[in-house]
Amino acid sequence: MAEARTRRRGGGGAARRAERTAVKIECEKFITRNIPNLEILNEEAMEIIEYNAETVLEEIGVNFVENPAALERWKEAGADIDGERVRIPRGLARELCKTAPSSYTQHARNPERSVEIGGKTLVLAPVYGPPFVRDADGGRRYATIEDFRNFVRLGYMSKYLHHSGGTVCEPTDVPVNKRHLDMLHAHMTLSDKPFMGSVTAPERAQDSVEMCEILFGKEFVQQNTVMTSLININSPMQFDDVMMGAMEVFAANNQASIISPFIVGGAMAPVSVAGTLTQVLAEVLAGVAYSQLVRKGAPVVAGTFVSSIDMNSGAPTFGTPEAANVTYGAGQLFRRLGLPYRSAGSFNGSKLPDAQAAYETANSLNTGLLSGVNFMLHSAGWLEGGLVASFEKFVMDADQLGVLHGIAKGVEVDTNAQAMDAIREVGPGGHYLGCDHTQKNFKSAFWRSELLDYKPYETWEEEGGRDTQALATEKVKKLLSDYQEPTLDPGIAEGLKDYIAEKKASMPDAFT
């Protein structure tokens, strides 16, 4: 009998060891803030900026370039058209924006990964658009499709990222006119988190919709939002036919677009915060209003990308107080419009994942949380002003996004949180390490980094005295080694492959 009891205990220990060493693919739910937004504009300031923004639209206007259909839509809506210049009467754009939803669900192929965008939520998505990648082994180089796939795998394995993103890096080894097919396929098959569509041409946006119809079903796509995609405005005040053409496709098919001015203060907008906010609001009003001319009720996000400029070198700067103030102010203005908000990210201008990168990133991430951002693109992996997607920086950022989750929870004051039983138990001069309250709560009381080193100096030195980048290099390798592809219906997988093969065969390769 004693022998049997021993065997049972041994079996239980083996099971516990197996559980500890098993690969766990965790994903935190999107953030719901239990803390207030930081608001820096008073009522008078907001009214001045709103008035000036509508003056810009009415008197100066915006350009819709090489887009006759857009000009016709605006003319029918009551705008004044002069060539490609659209002047929008005061109040018209704001009225059109009222049909845009204040929040929406973006569905993932795994329903547990679907996200809510708007209200008090914050959805975190990775870096977008760099032509280069960097890692400790290979240094800085042009990105390939395998780099892209590895970033999607890392995003899938990253607990605090809610979204797979879009062009996580630009795979330069695949023809320009075909790479969107491979990128979408990677998001759809290597992850089950929500993702973004292609915006580099209207026909590529249409390909994105059709691939989603294979993945989700045509009827589901037409009735639900399964993509949230980035539409940049060519600031100052110019809407090109490529981006607007992609937005038209997405809006017509009930898919979400982020209407986002691209602002480098002093180059693409005034150097003052109030002047930049005026231009940003004018551009967003025009862009969101146009989406509603394409389709009333189309989901849309009011966005802004903000950096300042180094007046000595001309390079963009990040993590600065001016950019933070624009981000805070834009949040207030967009909430008054009743629109979801996109801004902030792991912005930095550093060439390496070093102290500069960390300082600037921390400033930018915290600004995003406190400004009420609902969709944060570039939240992991950004380096060198957005020219580089860094593997080490990706996992460093993805780890620190857990801090945003923790801050957003706010302060609980239930009976357990008040901890009066612990205070009574310990009394004057004691300690809380062994008290009952600590024993019950220690596993979940404090957020813990899965990357940073808190070991004693002696242990750290014995293990090689590794800095954070070295730890991140190990983490990248571990995550990619542990990666397990999410299951996908074989019929859907085959349908996607056939679609891509047919599309690629229909056109010659183009690298420009």
Low-confidence runs of at least 5 consecutive residues: 1-10
Per DSSP, the total helix count is 19
Helix fraction bin: 40-55%
Q: Shape, please?
A: globular
Q: Based on DSSP secondary structure assignment, what is the total number of beta strands? A: 19
Integer-rounded radius of gyration: 25 Å
Instruction: Describe the sheet with the most strands.
Output: 6 strands, mixed
Strand content: 5-15%
Q: Write down the overall mean pLDDT.
A: 95
Q: CA-to-CA gap between the ends?
A: 77 Å
Class from secondary-structure proportions: alpha/beta
Description:
The protein is of the alpha/beta class. The protein is 47% helix and 13% strand. The protein is built from 19 helices and 19 strands. The protein has helices spanning 2-21, 43-60, 68-77, 92-97, 145-157, 179-190, 202-216, 218-223, 241-252, 273-294, 321-337, 355-370, 391-408, 415-418, 420-426, 436-445, 457-462, 468-482, 490-505, and strands at residues 31-32, 62-64, 80-82, 85-87, 103-106, 115-118, 121-124, 132-135, 139-142, 228-233, 238-239, 256-264, 300-303, 305-309, 316-317, 341-342, 375-376, 382-383, 388-390. Strands 10, 12, 13, 14, 15 and 16 form a 6-stranded mixed beta sheet that branches. Strand 3 and strand 4 form a beta hairpin. The longest helix has 22 residues, at 273-294. The protein is globular and about 75 Å long. The N and C termini lie far apart (77 Å). Residues 1-10 have low confidence and may be disordered.
